[in-house]
Amino acid sequence: MLEMRNISKNFEAVQALNHAHLKVEKGEIMALLGSNGSGKSTLVKVLSGLVNPTGGEIYIDGEAVQIKSSADARKHGIAVAYQDFSLIPKMSVIDNIMLTLSPCKKNGQIDEKKSREMAEYYLNELQIDVSPDAPVELLMPSTQSMIEIAKALAMKPRILILDEATASLHADEVEIVFSVLKKLKAEGTSIIIVTHRMSEIFRICDGCTILKSGETVAEGNVNQLDLDEIVFHMTGKYPDKEIGKQETKEKNHHLQLLLDVKDMAMPPKLKNVNFQAYQGEIVGIGGLDGQGQSEFIRVILGDHNYTAGKMIYQGKEIRYKQAADAVSDEIGFISGDRGRESIFPLRSVAENLFAGNTARGKLFAYLSPKEIDSFAKSAMQKYGVVAGGLRHPANSLSGGNQQKLVVGRWIALSPKLLLLDDPTKGVDINSRREIHRILRECTERGMSIIYVSSDNEELLEIADRIYIFYEGQISALLAGDDRREEKLVAAMLGIHQKQEEKGKQDDESKN
Amino acid sequence: MNQKINQIKRSPAFSGMILFFLFLIVYFGVQYLQAPESFWSIKTYRNFMSLFKSFSPLILVTMGQAFLMLMGIIDISIGMQMSFANVLAAMLPEILGLPTPVAWLIALLATILLAVLNGVIVSCLRIPPLLAGFAMIYVIKGINLLIAPKPGGKVPAIANQVFDSMLFGFIPFSLILLAVMYGIWLYLEKTPLIKAVYAIGGNERNAYATGIHTTAIKIKIYALAGFFTGLAGLCYTAAYTTGNPITGEIYGLQSISACILGGISLAGGWGNMASAVYGVGFQILVQTTVPKVFTMISKATGVNYNTYWHNLFSDIIILLGLVVTIFAIRAQRTTFISGLKKQIKGAKADE
Amino acid sequence: GPKADKKEESKEQTTQKEQPKPEEKQPEKQAEKQPEQKQEAPAEKKGLRVASHNAMIEGNPYRAVYETQIAAAAQKAKEMGLISQFDSFVANNDPALEAQQIEQSINEGYDIIIVNPIAASGLDALIQKAADAGITYINADCIYDSDKILNVVVDQAAWAEIQADYVIKTLGKGAKVVQFNGIDGNSASEIRSEVWKKKLPEAGIEIVKTVAHNWSDIEAKQLMNEIIASGLEFDGIINQEGANGIMDAIEESKIDFPKCITSSEEVSWIRRIAKVNEDKEAFPFIVVENPPGIGATALAIAINIRQGHELDPGKMSGNNLIYYTPQWIMTHENQKERLESIADLPDSTSVSSFMSVEEAKAAYFK
Amino acid sequence: MNKNKVYYFVKNNQIGMALLLSLLIFVVTIALNPKSLNVNAFGSILSLMSMLTIAAAGQTLVIIADGIDMSVGATMSMAAIVTVGILRGREDPMLFVIAILAAIGVGAIIGLCNGLGAVKAGLPPMVVTLYISNVVNRLQYVMTGGTPEFTSVSLIYKSFMTERLFQVFPVISFFALGMYALIFWLMNRTRYGQQIFLIGNNNRAAQLTGIRTTRLKVINYMMAGILSGIAGFIGAGNSGYIKCGAFDGMTIDTIVAVVIGGTLLAGGKGSYAGTAAGALLLIVLSNGLAVLSVSPSMKNLIMGVILIILLGVYNRAKPVRA
Ligand SMILES: Nc1ncnc2c1ncn2[C@@H]1O[C@H](COP(=O)(O)OP(=O)(O)OP(=O)(O)O)[C@@H](O)[C@H]1O
Ligand SMILES: Nc1ncnc2c1ncn2[C@@H]1O[C@H](COP(=O)(O)OP(=O)(O)OP(=O)(O)O)[C@@H](O)[C@H]1O
Ligand SMILES: [Mg+2]
Ligand SMILES: [Mg+2]
Q1: In whole angstroms, what is the distance from residue C233 CA to residue C39 CA?
Q2: Which long-range contacts (CB under 8 A, 24 or more apart) does C362-366 make?
Q3: Which of A89, A95, A102 lies at the smallest CB-CB distance from B203?
Q4: What is the DSSP string of A347-403?
Q5: Which of A193, A225, A257 is the last residue of a domain?
Q6: Is B194 on the interface with A (CB under 8 A)?
Q7: D75 and D232 in contact (C-beta within 8 Å)?
Q8: How many helices (H) and strands (E) does chain C have?
Q9: How far is CA A95 from CA A92, A229, B194, C313, in A?
Q10: What is the mean pLDDT of residues C306-335?
Q11: Which member of B37, D137, D154, D235 has the greatest number of CB atoms within 10 A?
Q12: H helix or E strand, kind and range, residue C48
């Protein structure tokens, strides 16, 4: 039905795809797997016309086709629910679902009534409970995600692609989506699912294609593969069963309380959060995407304003108005959303490393370029950033190196508290290890770290204690022997622990 | 009823509407105070109606600009384009001896073509619209001056008579024309084309990802704006019976600020044609009323304030109007969002 | 505010100072006025209402002086009881606003409307309307093509001829000149240019370059700089305005003075060129006035018409055209006395004359 | 291979290209009109270029920080009028100090308004600075009653400001050099400069890195206002006759000079050297068209087309399809 051969794509210095393959049959559900940054989304976008490949061919029903634009993809019956959405924030739910699909009356105007009926059909099908006239920007991420899926369904595609569409969905929503997918499969639709949730693969997928660094490293039937093998193909190593079982440091009691957050709320994203970070520890924050972790960490930084509760840092109650206030109190922040929140793509490697330093100090005092260079040089040596040169623009680096640049920027300044929001997104395994090593060294020197991650494995590996967020609340705190994958997953999904969690929270609030 | 009011309050044109009606009251108030005895006569009506005649070119240009701004594009050369149509319509009969209707048709088509060229430069060459506008002003000014080195040309008197006429003795021709053009918007508003325009203005990448031919739509809308601009040029020709190569230039910036005053977002995807009309109406009323207010003040106090003061105050009022509009829109949007902060995911999609 | 009042005052002073200078018969005039004012008692009762429409004043010093002088003349007429109301409107170069303002004036029933328009066309419909309403509509400064109105303009052809004659006399046959126009397309600028383009070649003088400085000293300077930089050879300069800018460029590049320069009547220029020529005639020049007071003259004529006086066709140039011939001319010969006559004018203004109501009557009426 | 090299040079060396194009245009001009090769040509080009470069200093800073300042011209005019008004043709050194302080003050106030409007209030910079510039422009007329009482600085000062050493090096070009040193120091030798580059490149990242972006951008607008004020002060001496709105036309020229000099309109990348190169290109082009007696209409047309070509080469936005 669909076959992609030898697809390559370079983004400047980054090779996102390297002769990748993908093949899907009619009525087949194919899982497209790979670690972060392995090129899954890029492959999907090549198919949907959003990315112009450097090379390769696409065959549909055995015929070579040219996909030069999204409209071309549509013509071939390809519809995608994008990882980063394709919704128009200010437009209503109906308009978003029916954009380009609305039936017209004889006079060329949109038949609003029919259009509404059709949109409502898909809303019902996916059991999305929203007002069809609400602008989508007002909706929760999970609802937006459902609308994105509805939008793709409404195109009645022959090939449906869901790019991590389930990442921010709740368990019941995932069920609904899967039942719809099964129906479509029965109707002969080919489906490609990109996901990081391994359980989903075995539940619904037939085939499986694994990408690593832009190359297709494995293709096959799901029942021929087991989880370990999949992980091996994705990462190049077998999963370490020992993860999470490492010694707990149990040093909390000897150490000083650095940050104490009490009953913090920021409706509707955060409710009643109690949180502590001690000096010299790494506190992990886990949970599904969009459960309030990012907001929480930005509240600490002063980038968001909270409406209730208080924050005590170094024994003093604080309320930052902006990130600069926090930074001058020696709090650092590293975002995983590199492009938007941390890298200065046009500025040189040296300037990027020096950026944290740039933000401090007298505005008009003499600043020699040598100072910047020597700072950058030493940071580069320490943190192993591989760069063409200090003067090259940051966007000439590969993704992993860009991220190391950002990490290096902050660690070189050794703040008292370092906040990290999924800092290893799209970072390869070695760089990731490197970053972890650096962070551990830092805690030894007394730095405290709050580490948000969407990757459970990573959390279990690096964090001393793990707070898990669910719907804006902390659903569990895992410390010591509790730090086990199944507990973590359960807390993330907010499933079995309802009572337990309640009790725990009561405890916390009593404290 | 309440629901209706709420709907109006939420409309993008709300703040523009308030500004407009506020100044409409000022306008009539001044008329009344100037001559209370003759206020309730036909004169007041005629005075008001004559606004449509004089300003229909600006109103049409603003409507054309509004189409583009909804798509997130500004075209500061649009005023020059109007002059292009005007110069062609006036000069072609003189230079080539063409009959007037043919000349006017050519002027209209040529303006549409020029607008399409502009669209190609912006959407295919992907030059930022602001800079493209600067460059196009040079180009079109050059062309206009080549066609008509000085104001002039041949315009038959009948054109002006028709344009100046009143249907049934009380509806100005220009008002009808404007109503028809607004009708075009009312029709288009419900078509997939304008939905696509909003989508592109809201988020171009996502509109593209949804399968919208963004380039094609942009060029279509440029052509549509060109149609409005060309028509504005013809109105100008009829109203002033002359071809003037450069006087339209100021309409470029005036139309943009009118749209913003009316509540159209500079970033695109937010606003509607009513916004543009209210905005330009507000601007026109300020321009025409402020000198009168000063006349009244000087009559009352005996102190003469010259035109420099009129202009200063007009500009200050428009600047304030701008500030009010933008804050109003923001307030509107925050009540919309009712406390919901912009969500990380949504923001990401903006990229 | 208070600051504004002060400005107004100071401006009035300026104009008052300006007025008497070119009009040396001022005292007698004042004396004559008293009895006449009584005669015009009925007109006073009616109270003429006057509206002035000017295309723009910002960025155009000429029109700015036009504006202040017509306002001053109107103020005087008001004091004398000849008119009851004077309002001034400026269209900021926006034809729509201009048309709108004129239409409103017509609707509001002003008796006299004096227009210095943006362009020489485009107002026919309004003129018709004004005629129907019995309004005295006078077009001032730039000629407007219509037989329904009276044009009161400076005789630009005469102005240009005076300059051309001077250049021909000074340079003689075979000379080369650079021509500086105002704004291409502006009627005054075009009329002058046409005269020069005809007269100079006839006299065997070659115009080697023609440029337009948009009545701006800064642009004139840049253009002159470019001309000098291009290595163009020329003997003299025939010019409409902006002589200061031209002079700046000449001094800046330290080239020799050309053999002559012509210009109109900015006081700063007059003083500057006079200084250059203080001891001997180092840089032959001629200054010919193009009085911005033409609007005030138009007002005087309009009042006469409303008072029922009849225009003398013999004193007009065509049945709807009154030419005001430039009178204030300065060359090296009369440099001293001319300088003295403007001794108390500030640098920023220009020499300008206009007619009082009586003078206008004497000059153009039966 | 060779082709690639040329492409790489053209793409990545905008300053070099601007200079190269300027040279090319100049050579063509001379070839078509050999008389135009003379000392005065150099003097006049240098003088005009210096003035434009000085005027574009503030614009460079603002555009690098991802803003735009449509009030450069109005600020310059205002400062020039204030300068001339204070000097009143006198030459007392004290008065010069007062005049330049006043020019700086005028610039700072206008810049502050721009900053508050464009950054604090978050209005679109293009629109808000444009309207503020309108108001500033109108204020000049109200203040002076349309025609300033004094239109020129004293003769001696003026001839100093317009003096050309050896007929070639105008005094004003030394002011331009001084301005260059100042801006170079500001942009490349202070945290201020570093910060505006970072803000222009990625405002959100700069904010999260701890830069007080709002404050800095307001300061930057003020800085631009001050620089425009200084430019107005210099212009008052250099341009001879000052009237209301004398420098209004400068605004667009500064934007064009900045952009064709390699500064990104979207901010984050650029240099003042580029602006100077852009100014040179504009002036040489305009000079060339004048020297070749191109009519004003053709001059406009050619300028526009060349601008579009330059923008097409250097200022294209990224395509939606990656
Ligand atoms: N538009 C772009 N410009 C530059 N680099 C890009 C662009 N899009 C993707 N990349 C890079 O290409 C590589 C592959 O990215 P891609 O989004 O395909 O990864 P992915 O497999 O979908 O990862 P994830 O699981 O995190 O979604 C990454 O290194 C990324 O940084
Ligand atoms: N145009 C360029 N300019 C400068 N350096 C470049 C350029 N192209 C490639 N490089 C260098 O080549 C290196 C290899 O890039 P590449 O994207 O293949 O790295 P990578 O192995 O994928 O790293 P990561 O896994 O961290 O993303 C980059 O780090 C960069 O320093
Ligand atoms: Mg992805
Ligand atoms: Mg990589």
Answers
A1: 63
A2: C363/C315, C364/C301, C364/C304, C364/C311, C364/C312, C364/C315, C364/C316, C364/C322, C365/C304, C365/C309, C365/C310, C365/C311, C365/C312, C365/C315, C366/C309, C366/C310, C366/C311, C366/C312
A3: A89
A4: SBHHHHHHHHHHTSS-TTSB--HHHHHHHHHHHHHHHT---S-TTSBGGGS-HHHHH
A5: A225
A6: no
A7: yes
A8: 14, 12
A9: 5, 44, 12, 74
A10: 84
A11: D235
A12: strand C48-54
Q: A402 and A420: one domain?
A: no
Query: What is the rounded distance in angstroms from the CA atom of residue A8 to the CA atom of residue B113?
Result: 40
**Residue A235 resides in a domain:** no
Asked if residue C35 has a cis previous peptide bond (ω within 30° of 0), the answer is: no
How close D33 comes to chain C (CA, Å)? Answer: 8
What is residue A254's predicted lDDT score, i.e. its pLDDT?
Answer: 63
pLDDT confidence tier of residue A36, bands split at 50, 70 and 90: low
Alpha-carbon span A508 to A510, nearest angstrom? 5
The stretch A137-144 carries a mean pLDDT of 80
Structure tokens at C123: 């107002």
Single-letter amino acid code for the residue at B164: D
Given 3-state DSSP classes, what are the helix, strand and coil percentages for chain A, each rounded to the nearest 5? 40, 25, 35
Q: Nearest CA to B205 among A84, A17, A337?
A: A84
Domain of D53? 17-314
The amino acid at C346: P
For CA atoms A35, A38, A41, A47, the dihedral sign is negative
Centre of ligand 4 from the C-alpha of residue A27, in Å = 33
Range of A499's domain?
Answer: 242-330+415-430+443-511
> What percentage of chain A has pLDDT greater than the value 70?
89
Name the H helices within A384-484.
Answer: 399-411, 429-444, 456-462
How far, in whole angstroms, is CA D63 from its chain's centroid? 11
Whether residue A435 is contained in a domain is answered as no
Give the count of domains, chain D: 1
Q: Find the residue in D nearest to A70 (Cα).
A: D321
A102 & A251 share domain: no
pTM of the model: 0.85
Q: Which residues of chain B have pLDDT under 70?
A: 1-9, 333-351
Q: Does B269 touch chain C (CB under 8 A)?
A: no
Name, in order, each residue with C-beta under 8 angstroms of B30's C-beta and a sequence gap of 6 or more.
B289, B292, B293, B296
Instruction: Give domain status of residue A196, yes or no.
Output: yes
pLDDT band at C307 (very low <50, low <70, confident <90, very high): confident
Residues 6+ apart with CB under 8 A from A429: A35, A235, A236, A237
Do A479 and A347 reside in the same domain of the chain? no
Interchain contact B308–C (C-beta under 8 A): yes
Q: Are residues A281 and A346 in the same domain?
A: no
What are A208's strand-pairing partners?
A: A31, A220
Task: Provide the residue type at C72 as one letter.
Answer: A
Scan for tokens 């977002």, then name that residue: B265
